[in-house]
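BUG: 3D viewer hangs when loading the predicted structure for this chain

Environment: internal workstation, default settings.
Expected: structure renders.
Actual: progress bar stalls at 90%.

Input used:
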Amino acid sequence: MQTLKIGQLASAADVHIQTLRFYERKGILKAGGRTEKGYRLYDPDDVIRIRFIKQAQKLGFSLREVIELLELKVDRKSKCADVESRAETKIEEIDRKIESLQKMRNILKTLTKACRGTVPTSECAILKAFENPSSQRHK
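Structure tokens produced before the viewer hung:
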């Protein structure tokens, strides 16, 4: 089996070398050894592991949660339902974030409608609302 140096792994997994070093410090990636010159060597399967980590992060999972998913992946006692439960929890978290962002958007829309663009900033309705947030209704 051919091993990969850190630069080769970074290129194959489409990440920076610093990302791989960070994952090593966190204990989620381990070099399988070193060359005579001291270069880290990795298993080709580490490309799949890195891609797994990056995809899970793109879907909103924190690094801690990704580690839990990786542990479930190798735990022979775990079931798909364990992963499904975590995914459902993540969906609920995303829904809460969307709701919060929509509220923020609505408030900003209301504030921008109150803006009279020609007045000095000392009279800006948006800036005044930031000074007195209780005057805004959180829709």
